[in-house]
# Entry
Amino acid sequence: MRRALVRLSRRVVALAAWLVPSPERRRFRQEWDAEIAHRASTSARSIDAVAILYRAVGAVPHALWVFKEEWRWDMLAQDFRYAVRSLVSRPLFVIAATLTLAVGIGANAALFSVIDAVLLKPLPYPEPERLVSVFESRLDLGGTRDAPAPGNVMDWRRESQTLEGVAAWWVESTTLLGDDYGDTEEVPSARVTVDFFPVLGVDALIGRTFSPEEVVGEPRIAVLSYELWQRRFGGDDAVVGSDVRFKNASWRIIGVMPRGFRTPGTLEGEVQLFKPWDLEHGYGEMPDRARDWRFLRGAARLAPGVSLSDAQAELDVIAASLAAAHPKTNLGWGVVLVPLRDALVGNTRVALTLLLVAVGFVLLLACANVTSLLLVRASGRNREMAVRTALGASRMRLVRQLFLEAFVLAALGGIVGVALARLSMEVLVRVAPAGIPRLEEVALDSRVVLFAVLASVAAGLVAGIAPAFQGSTAMPSEALKSAGAAVSTDRRRQRLRAIIVGFEIAAAVVLLVGSGLFLQSFYRVLTVELGFDADKLLVVRMRLDAATYGGGGAHPYYTRFLEEIRALPGVVAAGGTTGLPMDELDIDFDRPFWREGEPRPDGGGVGVQIRMPSVGYFEAMHIPLLEGRGVDIRDDRTKPRVLIVNETMARQTWPGESPVGQRLFIDYQNYEAVYDVVGVVGDTRFYGHKKAARRAVYIPHGQNPYLPLPIVVRAAGDPATLAPAIRRTALELDPAQPVHSIRTMDELMGGYLGQDRFQAFLMTAFAGMALLLATIGIYGVVAFSVAQRRRELGLRVALGAESKDIARIVLGGGFRIAAIGVLVGLTAALVMSRYLESALFGVSATDPTTLIAAASILMATVLVACYLPARRATKVDPTQTLRYE
Amino acid sequence: MTKSLGTAQLRVLEAIAGGTGYGFDVMDQTGLPSGSVYPALSKLEKSGLVRSRLEAVTLARREKRPPRRYYEITASGREALAGALVRARDLARSLARAVKESG
# Structure
């Protein structure tokens, strides 16, 4: 123990001595070593050995001080000039190295800009770390994140001390009627409670936001977004305080929000208009104050000095007391607070981290290739280094100068890399559709540039370290001989290069495996059985005006509208429903239910999703009818209540028997309704490709005519071409009732596919880069080896070796490295597979097919890379190579 | 004209004047961090206030270790120390006066 400590002390001193310029080094080491040795010999206790180590650590600041004292700025300038001169003399080499590094640094910078915008940058609100998302949570299901209900939000707000305001909002849309400013249009709008702007902490740019007294009673006042103010109202200050017509009433604009203000969590277009919402006014009179209408979005701000766990604890208590006081609606429900940023972007964290690791590998590969290039150059400079050493340059000086060369290359690579990053960022943002939150905030700002600088420095270090030390160890006597290279150092360098290439191959294998897995995962997502035919579908959203169509007028309107649409050329079928699959903005809710003859379940329980399809919906979507009948034109309010169930509902609620002819109770808060089940249809996936279907029932729209009814239109050809005709039809039907929005089903689904597609695309791009770099690396090593061994190969040919023997020798070398690299790579991939699991869908992280495929691709690439050198080797002419002896 | 020495150099000079000649011993005596004692010694040596020599080689060889370096104070070093003492006394006097005057 004691001896080990002393040895360690001496090693520390030896390390520190590295920093000391060589004239001073001998004395430095001698002083320290002598003192340590003396102390060590005069005391036998371990504790004294610890004291010696403690003292020895002081050698480092001492060495640094000497270094600082002896530092000559002009020496650095001289080294820099030398480095630049030696690089300029080899332009091809510089271009190759610069491009290689540029690819690595550029890819890293581009991905970092995405990660920065999505994960790292704080949300655009003051003190964003105090903002939390508020969800209700089903305790018996282990904690879910469900939307809060109005009654509960009002209670939390009133009772919580730890939350400085609880806000709720709902995103819908508003029609602005045509006026001096523009045509009739629908814009996304939000109804926000009184705490919305205070919680987010952003004040109006012009005018003001809603004051608490103003919100009561929901007067017709509104706040504009900056974008809407600029786009429609031309940035005119006079708009504030004036009236604008929405639908059938005039509303007063009282303020404009600043540029870049975002409503949390809106993926589909930023909210343009804010209206006040008084929950008390809307829901206070309802039974149980609508405690089980769980559909809001909620956020809150922690009071100063309160931690998240404090607030969570308080809310748990409040939720428990609510559950006790209102068991019918709240039994089994809790509250969960999630930091707002996590709630918005949390599920992208794993994927983005994986991509960051992958792109880091790409940079390492680039550095490895540049190291290899530098090592080759080093061999050509043996004599130069030997001369300089003989003339008195210290090792450190040579190392420093070689490092400078690497840093200059890295700097050049960094500059080109940033330019490449700028280009690829444009591509990235276009390729990654909705599905990655906050993507609009991606920009080449100072943080990204700083990252690029750091990456360049790191690249210079990594790429330069081996050549710097390797390149400075030429033995002067050997190198100064005229017979050429110093053989032993060169062989060592070749071996080093071979090892480096081995690692490159391993890294490429890992990335190939990752790419293969992500591609498969994406494919599984794409091909999952959705339950309907998503091809050639157009989604038309209408939001009927309550004043005109309320009280049942929606049914005849939509019936007529659908008939008109079906008559259009190019339309194969049309139908509508609330609760359209993949439609985020739509109304979706579930209600408690029970079979006839069973008791009512307590506390709300698991609900059934309720949709209201029109005639022709199932047909338009190609949802199969499994039993009974679908929606009939005669299903309206005059007839007995009927509904159609989906497969999952049928299977889970009536196991083993047919639900047709049975009766079902549904609880709607203020009343209960009983329905006859008349049919069973196939399941559809509603919340994206990955979430399985849940229990759902379909109540004919005629019997429950909701005002908003998304319509699907199946087209014979390209669905987008039908849009103008449909818009016209709507306006012909009612000039004050324009279409809210038209999208293709593909676009809607793009939002759900976005993340998987993004992952797969990037991972494959990185794997491709890695493969390319590894191929170049192998080619370099093998080609060089062949060039070095020309004499040996010539000899073999002269002694009777055939082409295939030569080829085997060359290829054998390459394959040996490759095989080891592949094995290491596969092992690494298996080790890392655990981290990939959560990002994959439908495919295991250790999928053997992928592993084998990756290994095969790599071996094939090695074959290709070795082909040229092998061919060249077989063409070796012994009369040439054996001439110079 | 000797310019005033820093605290570290002063303490080291004081220790050497007192006869402590070897690096680690100076560290022990002054209580300064090990990384600053040698730089102080270096500066003192450059200013000519101390000089150093290696100890007798035979002694070291007998104990099978490299010879240690021994520092001793020079005449100018003694002068510098005396000068520092004078300055310290002046400072003490004026400080005492200031304390008395400020009550």
Remarks:
- The CA atoms of residues 83 and 631 of chain A lie 80 Å apart.
- Chain A has a mean pLDDT of 85.
- The two ends of chain A are 57 Å apart (CA to CA).
